[in-house]
């Protein structure tokens, strides 16, 4: 089998990880090796140039080297009859759990207030909020959302709700689904975590209307995708106190433009899309299984539903 890696960074580590886990394959790196496009069976990709994948005439599968496939599906020339598989990796989940737990605890334990107080040399104690009662809401109860919810449960957060397209039965977690469940879910969410994929249906879901349904002074953590947020509306709610503070890892434009108002807002914590990064060694082992499934004619795990967009 001929496997082509297409990504802009860490190609050395990816090449060696894929070779190690897939010794039966010839592994090529786009931009580094001479490649006859007709020979390529499988492409392992992260944000390939739009139009490129359509130029490989014999592709049998595309493996996305991350969880979110939005960048790929934006490419109108993407060959939609070729199976597209996305990465689900316990290591990716544990990175996200760390990021989300960090953010939830940061806001839950008033660290955003204490940071301001420190600057003003202000010694004021605030009573701790009740962990069991704190309303945490997770938009997206998929692979990452569920792992984050379980980690928070283990820390004593007993008032966790999740929102997804289909209702879930998860012990200890209230499940809301669809448009009907959204209002109730938002009213519950003192700390709102977004882990939704970027799709047509989730585009600008967090806007003036939905943000105003959160309890006054809520906190927002966005580690899903920037397109879910209407930036102007979030800024407005951050300025009027409807949202007390937010932690943002993903943005409508990445890198975040130098002149973006987010950079200078005191009630924001910004990170450069690092909530969880794919690690070649663990991911390569999982990808290998998917490629072998495709090669053997079996349906691989985590096949993307192109219609739904995730
Ligand atoms: P999954 O596909 O496992 O989960 C997606 C969840 O979103 C599911 O629960 C799904 O509902 C729900 N959902 C999708 N569309 C809707 C909708 N219209 N209405 C309500 N719920 C919806 O994805 P993962 O958990 O693996 O990843 C989630 C996202 O996290 C990725 O798509 C990516 O954008 C982002 N990500 C960000 C990273 C970072 O570093 N910042 C790293 C990795 C991922 P249902 O269960 O009913 O299908
Ligand atoms: C991903 C990401 O989707 O890194 O995996 O954002």
Q: Which features characterize this protein?
A:
Rossmann fold, 12 strands, 9 helices, alpha/beta, binds NADPH dihydro-nicotinamide-adenine-dinucleotide phosphate, five-stranded parallel sheet, seven-stranded parallel sheet, binds oxalic acid, 16% strand, 31% helix
Written account of the structure:
The protein is α/β, with parallel strands linked by helices. It has two domains: 2-89 and 278-295, NAD(P)-binding Rossmann-like Domain (Rossmann fold, 3-Layer(aba) Sandwich); 90-270, NAD(P)-binding Rossmann-like Domain (Rossmann fold, 3-Layer(aba) Sandwich). Helix content is 31%, strand content 16%. It is built from nine helices and twelve strands. The chain has helices at residues 11-21, 70-73, 90-108, 111-119, 143-154, 178-188, 208-211, 231-239, 280-295, and strands spanning 2-6, 26-29, 42-45, 61-64, 84-85, 136-139, 160-164, 173-177, 191-194, 218-222, 243-248, 268-270. The strands form two sheets. It has a seven-stranded parallel β-sheet with strand order 8-7-6-9-10-11-12. The protein has a five-stranded parallel β-sheet with strand order 2-1-3-4-5, covered by helices on one side. Helix 1 links the parallel strand 1 and strand 2. The longest helix has 19 residues, at 90-108. The chain is elongated, with a radius of gyration of 21 Å. The model has no long low-confidence stretch (mean pLDDT 98). NADPH dihydro-nicotinamide-adenine-dinucleotide phosphate (NDP) is lined by residues 66-68, 88, 92, 96, 140-145, 163-166, 195-199, 201-202, 223-225, 249-250, 273, 275-276, 310.
């Amino acid at each position: 089998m001929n496997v082509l890696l297409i990504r802009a960074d860490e190609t050395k580590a990816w090449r060696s990880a894929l070779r190690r886990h897939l010794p039966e394959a010839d592994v090529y790196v786009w931009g580094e090796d001479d490649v006859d496009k007709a020979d390529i069976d499988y492409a392992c990709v992260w944000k390939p140039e739009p139009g490129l994948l359509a130029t490989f005439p014999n592709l049998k599968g595309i493996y996305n080297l991350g969880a979110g496939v939005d960048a790929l599906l934006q490419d109108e020339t993407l060959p939609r009859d070729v199976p597209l598989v996305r990465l689900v990796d316990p290591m990716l989940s544990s990175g996200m759990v760390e990021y989300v737990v960090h953010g939830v605890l940061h806001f839950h334990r008033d660290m955003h207030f204490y940071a301001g107080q420190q600057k003003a040399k202000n010694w004021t104690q605030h009573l701790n909020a009740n962990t069991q009662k704190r309303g945490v809401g997770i938009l997206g109860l998929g692979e990452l959302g569920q792992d984050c919810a379980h980690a928070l449960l283990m820390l004593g957060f007993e008032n966790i709700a999740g929102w997804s397209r289909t209702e879930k039965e998860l012990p200890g977690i209230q499940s809301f689904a669809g448009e009907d469940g959204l209002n109730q879910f938002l009213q519950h969410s003192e700390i709102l975590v977004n882990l939704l994929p970027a799709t047509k249906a989730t585009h600008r879901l967090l806007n003036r209307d939905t943000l105003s349904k959160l309890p006054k002074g809520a906190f927002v953590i966005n580690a899903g995708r920037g397109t879910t947020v209407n930036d102007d509306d979030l800024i407005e709610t951050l300025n009027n106190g409807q949202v007390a503070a937010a932690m943002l890892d993903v943005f409508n434009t990445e890198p975040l433009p130098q002149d973006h108002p987010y950079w200078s807002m005191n009630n924001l914590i910004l990170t450069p899309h690092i909530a969880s990064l794919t690690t070649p060694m663990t991911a390569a082992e999982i990808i290998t299984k998917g490629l072998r499934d495709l090669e053997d004619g079996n349906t691989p795990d985590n096949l993307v539903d192109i219609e739904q967009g995730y």
